[in-house]
């Protein structure tokens, strides 16, 4: 029932996320257009004035600047003309190009006056957050066409949208995006840091692979959006965005595969897919290495193999996670809820670069948000894993510390706990009780070892009932038990020991004839010179004195010899 409830919750959450994405893609509303645009390839001998004149006299391919458009940067680049539609305004404005990719873009204020910038540019021009921005002075009327040139580049182009806004609108939109992106990246990196801490504390590489995956994904989105350049100002990464992004993409899915294998327990639930997933995880770093070599044939090979392998690997991880979840892997459901929407958005963003979903310019930002969502979901799953590991370790420690028959502390665990108690100092008195069942050998001989085991279990239960939770009770060996009483003075310890004798007598365990199962108890009070071993030895000597004195009695060790403090513990019916 619990697993069915988890599956139902996972399916509802996954369905809600998928529906939001699909409905937004299918039914996005368009505001009234404020810009129109035309474009054409750059030809040899082109001049800005000639291109603007041609735009008035010859029909050029049109596009909607508010919808995502892919401008080729191969060859000599692309000319883009943007016109503001009436009613026109006056004043300073800002032209923004969203998601421009890693290439450079130029704006011509005049035929001989242009400004060139890029996401990774740290020069004088205006730098937007998540966009390429150009300041338009008030001297350029709103009715005048603006000429842009997407410069030739061997780097991957972006599917862009273009807008022209007043300075207040631009600053408000820029601040909103900056807060949004900062929050998303902060969530991803915080979750990665938390996972790294868990990896070090628990010594579990599942958390380490997850932290590495999150860092790579945050780097990918930071490079695509330009966040690592502005506002982070990581100038050392300028010019490396394309190659570094490709390497980070390959490594991210490699780390995701290694994480999935351990997190979803692929060895137990999907053993047949373990080898393909592991091969994929080990192969992607090879692709990243080829990409970083700079050798043209190796780079071309890596670029050719990267996208097909990414697609196959992502689907493989999804299938493996789904099978593991169906076969009972609790954590596979967390993986599916976090991985599936992110995989869907990644596929949609890739389709945008092929000219699809032009009416969903928010998809690149959604990919950033979905990275934060996945980080939260999988971190919850990892927290659940950490609690499970802790529970299993506590259970294993409890089993290792407990006597398997009686359930009290075994000799080793009791000795360790007693040592820790004595190391607390002499601030509180400590009494040690050494208990030994009387005629226990006779009980085993006459009634069998099963009867003896039942007597030991009953004895342990009686002792637990009489002692305080803070008292340390353990089985020392055979029919011998020890109890360390914190804060018990001599008289109090004797009273407790006498009560224990009476409680054992009332168990009504017949040894044979008229003999009943009883216990003899020796008491030793801790002195400054005592160790655990010396305290046990004195209590043991007192217990033997109780045996010699007739059994079923309490003897407390004195400064020189054991002292009988009660002649006999007579049971009360």
Automatic annotation (TrEMBL):
Q: What is its EC number?
A: 2.7.7.65
Q: Which GO terms describe its biological process?
A: cell adhesion involved in single-species biofilm formation; negative regulation of bacterial-type flagellum-dependent cell motility
The residues forming the signal peptide are: 1-31
Q: Please give the cofactor(s) recorded in the UniProt entry for this protein.
A: Mg(2+)
* CC terms in the record's Gene Ontology section: plasma membrane
Assigned keywords, A-Z: Membrane, Signal, Transmembrane, Transmembrane helix
* Chain segments annotated as transmembrane: 177-202, 209-232, 244-264, 276-299, 305-326, 333-354, 366-387
Task: List the molecular function annotations (GO) for this entry.
Answer: diguanylate cyclase activity
Q: Which InterPro entries match?
A: 7TMR_DISM_rcpt_extracell_dom1, Diguanylate_Cyclase, GGDEF_dom, Nucleotide_cyclase, Rev_trsase/Diguanyl_cyclase
Q: Which PANTHER family match?
A: DIGUANYLATE CYCLASE DGCC-RELATED (PTHR45138:SF24), REGULATORY COMPONENTS OF SENSORY TRANSDUCTION SYSTEM (PTHR45138)
Q: What is this protein called?
A: diguanylate cyclase
What does the record give as the organism's lineage? Bacteria, Pseudomonadati, Pseudomonadota, Gammaproteobacteria, Lysobacterales
């Amino acid at each position: 029932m619990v697993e069915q409830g988890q599956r139902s919750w996972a399916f509802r959450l996954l369905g809600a996320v998928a529906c939001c994405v699909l409905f937004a893609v299918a039914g996005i509303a368009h505001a009234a257009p404020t810009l129109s645009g035309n474009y054409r390839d750059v030809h040899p001998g082109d001049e800005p004035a000639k291109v603007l004149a041609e735009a008035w006299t010859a029909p050029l391919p049109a596009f909607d600047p508010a919808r995502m458009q892919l401008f080729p940067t191969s060859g000599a680049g692309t000319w883009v003309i943007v016109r503001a539609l009436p009613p026109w305004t006056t004043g300073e404005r800002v032209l923004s190009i969203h998601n421009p990719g890693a290439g450079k873009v130029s704006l011509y204020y005049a035929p001989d006056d242009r400004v060139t910038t890029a996401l990774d540019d740290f020069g004088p021009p205006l730098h937007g957050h998540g966009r390429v921005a150009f300041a338009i002075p008030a001297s350029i009327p709103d009715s005048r066409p603006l000429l842009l040139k997407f410069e030739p580049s061997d780097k991957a182009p972006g599917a862009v949208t273009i807008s022209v806004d007043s300075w207040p609108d631009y600053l408000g939109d820029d601040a909103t995006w900056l807060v949004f992106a900062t929050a998303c990246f902060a969530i991803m990196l915080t979750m990665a840091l938390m996972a790294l801490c868990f990896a070090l504390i628990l010594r579990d590489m599942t958390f380490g692979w997850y932290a590495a995956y999150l860092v790579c994904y945050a780097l990918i989105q930071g490079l695509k959006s330009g966040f690592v350049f502005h506002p982070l100002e990581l100038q050392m990464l300028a010019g490396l965005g394309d190659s570094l992004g490709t390497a980070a993409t390959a490594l991210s899915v490699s780390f995701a595969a290694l994480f999935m294998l351990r997190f979803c327990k692929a060895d137990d639930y999907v053993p047949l897919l373990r080898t393909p997933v592991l091969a994929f995880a080990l192969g992607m770093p090879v692709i990243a290495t080829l990409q970083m070599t700079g050798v043209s044939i190796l780079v071309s090979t890596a670029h050719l193999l990267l996208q097909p392998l990414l697609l196959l690997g992502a689907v493989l991880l999804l299938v493996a996670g789904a099978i593991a979840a169906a076969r009972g892997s609790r954590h596979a459901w967390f993986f599916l809820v976090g991985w599936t929407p992110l995989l869907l958005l990644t596929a949609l963003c890739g389709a945008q670069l092929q000219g699809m979903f032009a009416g969903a310019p928010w998809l690149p930002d959604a990919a950033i948000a979905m990275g934060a969502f996945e980080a939260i979901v999988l971190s919850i799953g990892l927290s659940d894993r950490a609690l499970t590991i802790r529970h299993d370790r506590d259970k294993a420690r409890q089993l290792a510390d407990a006597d398997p028959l009686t359930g009290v502390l075994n000799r080793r665990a009791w000795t360790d706990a007693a040592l820790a108690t004595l190391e607390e100092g002499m601030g509180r008195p400590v009494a040690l009780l050494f208990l030994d069942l009387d005629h226990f050998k006779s009980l085993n001989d006459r009634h069998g070892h099963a009867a003896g085991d039942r007597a030991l279990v009953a004895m342990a239960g009686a002792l637990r009932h009489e002692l305080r939770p803070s008292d340390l009770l353990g089985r020392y060996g055979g029919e011998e038990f020890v109890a360390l009483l914190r804060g018990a003075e001599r008289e109090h310890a004797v009273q407790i020991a006498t009560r224990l004798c009476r409680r054992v007598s009332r168990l009504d365990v017949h040894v044979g004839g008229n003999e009943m199962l009883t216990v003899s108890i020796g008491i030793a009070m801790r002195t400054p010179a005592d160790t655990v071993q010396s305290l046990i030895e004195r209590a043991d000597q007192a217990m033997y004195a109780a045996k010699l004195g007739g059994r079923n009695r309490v003897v407390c060790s004195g400064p020189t010899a054991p002292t009988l403090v009660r002649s006999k513990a007579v049971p009360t019916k």
